[in-house]
Specification:
With 150 residues, the protein is an alpha+beta fold. It has one domain: Nucleoside Triphosphate Pyrophosphohydrolase. Helix content is 22%, strand content 34%. It is built from 3 helices and 7 strands; from the N terminus they run ββββαβββαα. The strands form 2 sheets. The protein has a 4-stranded mixed beta sheet with strand order 4-1-6-5. A hairpin with a 6-residue loop joins β2 and β3. It is globular and about 45 Å long.
């Protein structure tokens, strides 16, 4: 693994068919709620990054679920307080959005160094709780991302 984080990450919106969404509270910022996120490591694929981050942050095995690349990217400025994690001069990150469907709200095994708590919320409420605009916008797209029923 490199000394600095890559400015390429994934955002994984974990949800049920009924549009309940999993949010995690950041340990470094109590009150900041988000979906699963994480930076790409070395030469792993974005799909592998999404799988790894879901397992590390929640204990959910994405290989056993419907993980979908939404083919959506966001570029945003890295908060100044987190720039020390990146190489000097890096100020923006490119985020790739994925969705992970689970059959119902599941218990989650949190990584205590990363998250304090979790909760499952209806999608609109979940979107309103996210501190990140890209996370909020991804959750608001969720109804359009579900397979159409015949």
């Amino acid at each position: 693994m490199t000394a600095h984080k890559k400015p390429i990450s994934v955002l994984v919106v974990i949800h049920t068919p009924a549009l309940d969404v999993l949010l995690l509270e950041r340990a470094s910022h109590p009150g900041y709620w988000q979906s699963v996120t994480g930076s790409q490591e070395d030469d792993e694929s974005l799909l592998d990054t999404a799988r790894r981050e879901v397992l590390e942050e929640t204990g959910i095995d994405a290989d056993r679920r419907a993980l979908t690349d939404w083919q959506l990217t966001n570029t945003f400025e890295i908060f100044p307080e987190w720039r020390h994690r990146y190489a000097p001069g890096i100020t923006s990150n490119t985020e790739h959005v994925f969705g992970l469907t689970v059959p119902a709200p599941l218990p989650v095994s949190l990584a205590p160094d990363e998250h304090l708590a979790y909760r499952w919320l209806p999608w609109r409420e979940a979107a309103s709780q996210c501190f990140s605009w890209s996370n909020r916008d991804a959750i608001l797209l969720l109804p359009q991302r579900l397979p159409q029923q015949p």
